[in-house]
Design brief:
globular; Farnesyl Diphosphate Synthase; 283 residues; mainly alpha; 2 domains
């Protein structure tokens, strides 16, 4: 039991240190739900750190495969010597989460080791189906919904909205890792190449490109919004807050004139706390 409690604590610490916006929203969940959300975050964050590490790609691929194998062994009931996985495996069992969603996530993470760009938005959505949409479907049993089938697609849409927001915000950071997540067809449409994305500030073509992607992300947020009312009442404040906080990142991008190269768009702490406080009062 101590190992399990320690694993949940480590997942929560990862979430607090690396996912500040989402972590703030989870504080509005009942404590018994919160630790399971932290466990899912710990699983995804650890895989992400493997993929984005400094080791050669072959070493990162091996470590990711080993992480997935330890997880699969744990699902099969084998003892697992890992600081995080006991919490993840416990969460899977408590809520009957679909292992296929974890497999899809790990496949998308593996793509980051070999795929550096996406020709079309459909291609990018193929990647995000595993890296983001499945997070929504994994979260849904924890959040709870009276009609899970009706809530499934909005949950997927929220995952897509969050990830596309990250891609918009992190263009420069991703390029430093050799990746461009914005679709090639969009770059061509606005006359943007990698050299433009590597510039210290965004030129007019890049700004038009980012404005287009912001509009696309907002469409995902709009598609996700009706799903909040389908959740258990105890979970709605958390998801409303996450929806609002991530949406404010796009507002900051707009406020910066769509220049995502000169600095990373962040929501000021006072605004984040105001949004969270509003939900506490509403609840």
């Amino acid at each position: 039991m101590a190992d399990l409690a320690g694993a949940y604590a480590r997942c929560g610490d990862l979430h607090r240190r690396h996912g500040r916006t989402y972590y703030l929203a989870t504080l509005l969940l009942p404590a018994w739900k919160r630790r399971h959300v932290h466990a899912l975050y710990g699983f995804t964050r650890y895989a992400d750190e493997i993929v984005d590490g400094a080791a050669p790609p072959a070493d990162r691929a091996r470590r990711l495969a080993e992480w997935g194998a330890r997880f699969s062994a744990g699902l099969a009931g084998e003892p697992v010597d890992d600081p995080l996985l006991p919490a993840v495996l416990h969460t899977v069992r408590v809520f009957g989460l679909d292992p296929a969603d974890f497999d899809a996530f790990l496949r998308s993470m593996a793509m980051d080791l070999t795929v550096s760009e996406y020709a079309t938005y459909d291609d990018l959505c193929g990647y995000m189906a595993g890296s983001a949409a499945v997070i929504g479907t994994l979260m849904l049993p924890i959040l709870g919904a009276a009609d899970p089938a009706a809530a499934r697609e909005p949950a997927r849409q929220l995952g897509l909205a969050f990830q596309l927001t990250n891609f918009i915000r992190d263009v420069a950071e991703d390029l430093d890792r050799g990746r461009v997540y914005l679709p090639g067809e969009d770059l061509d449409r606005f006359g943007v190449d990698r050299a433009d994305l590597a510039a210290p500030t965004a030129g007019p073509a890049v700004r038009r490109l980012i404005a287009h992607e912001v509009g696309r992300a907002r469409a995902h947020y709009a598609a996700a919004l009706p799903g909040i009312a389908l959740l258990e009442p105890a979970s709605r404040a958390c998801v409303r807050t996450a929806h609002a906080l991530y949406g404010r990142i796009l507002d900051e991008v707009v406020r910066a004139g769509y220049d995502v190269l000169v600095r990373r768009a962040t929501v000021p702490n006072w605004r984040r706390l105001t949004i969270a406080a509003r939900e506490v009062a509403r609840r």
